[in-house]
Design goal:
249 residues, alpha+beta, Pseudouridine synthase, 2 domains, eleven-stranded mixed beta sheet, two-stranded antiparallel ribbon, 7 helices, 21% helix, globular
Length: 249
């Protein structure tokens, strides 16, 4: 019978902009000398916020967290279209967005709520024939991608200070927020891209419970135990007990 390890569980990390999700997994594995570390849903390098780190046998919970609904806060920049649909890409078109009114923007955002089919961007980790799309994109290739059914529960405008619009978006797994921004820009006729993105929730888990990466990597292995949420917490329930996984003061 396998004995449980105190490190079997999950860790909530507030990801900074820059590193990939894989980079964070590798840093945590090496720093704390852990054998098995994974994550429960990737974030693009430029994105920040909640990254669920799976430790030891906690990696068995990968499908559970991957399939959970997500909530994001983001900023859309009107008037500039990029090849990656976010701020990391090359500018491929510019247009004057000054004619876009608050009412027009809200009307277009409302059209994206509910069920819709979304075509994944070329600059993504989806594989076709075993090759990630982003590698094909780097070679200047563009291939046909199958649209995927997604659902947007909410897309709410927080602030509109032209040419930027900040918003909250709550959606199902596999949703490309940058593609939503790109498509809204196309519908408005001026183009747009995702300038900033922060994941605030994944299922019942909130970024308020997460520890920033720099603070995490300042800890010793024994201190990590105070942050690990045990696997049994999720047996039969997706809700955390109050106070679980809190960041240290």
């Amino acid at each position: 019978m396998n004995r449980s390890d105190p490190f079997d569980g999950i860790l909530l990390v507030d990801k900074p902009a820059g590193p990939t999700s894989h980079d964070l997994v590798d840093k945590i594995r090496r720093h704390f000398n852990l054998k098995k570390v994974g994550h429960g849903g990737t974030l693009d390098p430029a994105a920040t916020g909640l990254l669920i780190i799976l430790l030891g046998r906690g990696t068995r919970l990968s499908a559970k967290f991957m399939s959970s609904d997500k909530t994001y806060e983001g900023t859309m920049r009107l008037g500039i279209t990029t090849d990656s649909q976010d701020a990391d890409g090359q500018v491929i078109r510019e247009a004057d967005p000054s004619g876009v009114s608050l009412e027009q923007l809200q009307a277009e955002m409302a059209k994206f709520r509910g069920d819709l089919y979304q075509t994944p961007p070329m600059v993504s980790a989806i594989k076709i024939g075993g090759v990630p799309l982003y590698k094909m994109a780097r070679r200047g290739q563009e291939v046909e991608r199958q649209p995927r059914l997604i659902h947007l529960y909410e897309m709410r405008l927080l602030n509109f200070t032209p040419p930027r619009a900040s918003f909250v978006l709550r959606c199902t797994k596999g949703t490309y927020v940058r593609t939503i921004c790109h498509d809204i820009g196309e519908a408005l006729g001026c183009g747009a891209h995702l300038e900033q993105l922060r994941r605030t929730e994944s299922g019942e888990l909130n970024v308020n419970r997460a520890i920033p990466l720099d603070k995490l990597l300042a800890l010793q292995q024994v201190q990590l135990l105070d942050l690990v949420i045990p696997m049994h917490t999720f047996a039969g329930s997706s809700t955390l007990p109050p106070g679980s996984g809190q960041s240290p003061p």
